[in-house]
Amino acid sequence: MKGLKVITNPRNGFRVITLHYSANPEKATPEWKARTKKGMPDHGWMREMEIDYGAMGGQLIFPQMREYEEKIICQPFDVTHFRKCGSIDYGGSRSPFSFHVYMVDYNDKKYAIWEHYKIDPYLRNHAEAIKTCPYFEGLEYITIDPACNAKLPQKERGPTSIIQILAEEYKIYTILGNNNREAGRQRIADCWYNLEEEEPFFYIWPNCVNMIREFKNLRWPEEMKDDVVGDDHAYDECRYFFMSRPQRSVREEIDNRPRWLREQERERTQGIAQLF
């Protein structure tokens, strides 16, 4: 059958079946290819559609960050009435601790709006920095690297975890992030699809300098054996945020009725409630 290929992995004997788009006669035309490839970089097409997993070796993962920086990086504005969440990637004592605040507007567009990114072996310093964030009290939830749920040896009180320490000692409560790397990457990439003609669905404020730097420089490894090449701490916790399926903000309905009428209805509602 045209487009069907069966490959046997020589190391483990597993069989992999791939089905190329050309198996469908309606898609095996230059016109369909030109229409579908529109807005997709060549290496992305080779990997996703031509099933060449080595095609992206050494390529930028998010070339949009360099090509359309002026679209993706936007100026701050009032986010008081929008839903906000946080996300953490714990780097240990030798790698950066990354925390960002994200906002979702009425149109389901996402924004990275605040950043704490620092190498510091002391968790309390990161916790204090998070709690000084002007948006901290309004966060709906904070996702965190699921590896932070692993037990650590504590001489004083026995094994505990980063998640437990943040909650018990610093009142920072978190939920486990979904570490599906490919799905998380794809959700971010989908927000930057065809930026030549479309507007982004994920924006970054200019104060998030380390996130911008990471997204500009992340590359696929040459042999496609590892996840990414380059600093990926902000990128990782960004994936946790996207995989949490954040909900769009909802506009508050404004009651334009006269004040006396609103108070009358409130009194009537309270009276009915007292009957029960």
Quick overview of this protein structure:
Helix 7 packs across helix 9 (233-243). The chain folds into 2 domains: 4-59, no CATH class; 65-243, Nucleotidyltransferase, domain 5. The termini are far apart.
Notes on the structure:
This protein has helices spanning 30-37, 42-48, 64-67, 69-72, 123-131, 162-170, 181-190, 209-217, 233-243, 259-275, and strands spanning 4-8, 15-19, 83-89, 97-104, 110-118, 142-144, 175-176, 202-204. With 276 residues, it is of the alpha/beta class. The chain has two domains: 4-59, no CATH class; 65-243, 2-Layer Sandwich (Nucleotidyltransferase, domain 5). Strands 7-6-3-4-5-8 form a six-stranded mixed sheet. A two-stranded antiparallel ribbon has the order 1-2. A hairpin with a 5-residue loop joins strand 4 and strand 5. The model has no long low-confidence stretch (mean pLDDT 86).
Label the overall shape. globular
User: SS-based structural class?
Assistant: alpha/beta
Taken together, the total number of domains comes to 2
Strand order, sheet with most strands: 7-6-3-4-5-8
**CATH domain fold name of the largest domain:** Nucleotidyltransferase, domain 5
Instruction: Kindly report the average pLDDT value.
Output: 86
Radius of gyration: 24 Å
The overall strand count is 8
CATH class of the largest domain: Alpha Beta
Order of helices and strands: EEHHHHEEEHEHEHEHHH
Put simply, the count of helices is 10
Question: How would a textbook summarize the main sheet?
Answer: 6 strands, mixed
Q: What ranges have pLDDT less than 50 throughout 5 or more consecutive residues?
A: none
Which second-level CATH architecture of the largest domain applies? 2-Layer Sandwich
Strand coverage percent: 15-25%
Spatial gap, N to C terminus: 71 Å
Helix content: 25-40%
